[in-house]
Amino acid sequence: MEKVPMTAGGYEALEAELKRLKTVDRPAVIQAISAAREHGDLSENAEYHAAKEKQSFIETRVIELEDKISRAQVIDVSKLSGQVIKFGATITLVDIDTDDEVVYQIVGVDEADVKAGRLSVSSPVARALIGKTVGDEIEVTTPGGHKSYEILKVQFG
């Protein structure tokens, strides 16, 4: 069974979503299905079909979250150190072409949010960064085109 790396915050977010789905969303959709059944003929009941579709989505997501949580490898970033980039590192980069500085943290797939500076460990930029150190240059093809960066700073915690 393949482990899924994530930060403690990412793990907590998955657990919170799972709890919400089980305690709030699931009972609400069951109530909606029950109410829609009372309207009669189910074959032409749009409310019933919409509620059943939502129930299917919720149940699929619950299974997905339970699987990820069971395979979670929670990495305590505050206990990591060093100059070599690895999961959990916060990296300051400078775009060689524009001199713009960007700061990214390498996080789990479910935690990624590029606008918030959180790169998925499986993204092209993160894969290019892992194993590098301050002063190294990387070149990567992103959805926005070809980019060249120099690593200015690596920190953990």
Number of strands: 7
How does the major sheet shape up?
A: 5 strands, mixed
**How many domains, as an integer?**
2
Per CATH, which architecture of the largest domain?
Answer: Roll
Q: If you compute it from the alpha carbons, what radius of gyration comes out, rounded to the nearest whole angstrom?
A: 21 Å
Strand order of the largest sheet: 5-4-3-7-6
Shape: elongated
State the assembly state of the protein chains.
single chain
CATH class call of the largest domain: Alpha Beta
- What is the rounded distance between the termini? 28 Å
**What is the CATH topology descriptor of the largest domain?**
Chitinase A, domain 3
Mean pLDDT, rounded to whole units?
Answer: 92
- Give me the strand/helix succession: EHHEEEEHEE
- Uncertain stretches: none
Proportion of residues in helical segments: 25-40%
Q: What is the CATH superfamily classification of the largest domain? A: Transcription elongation factor, GreA/GreB, C-terminal domain
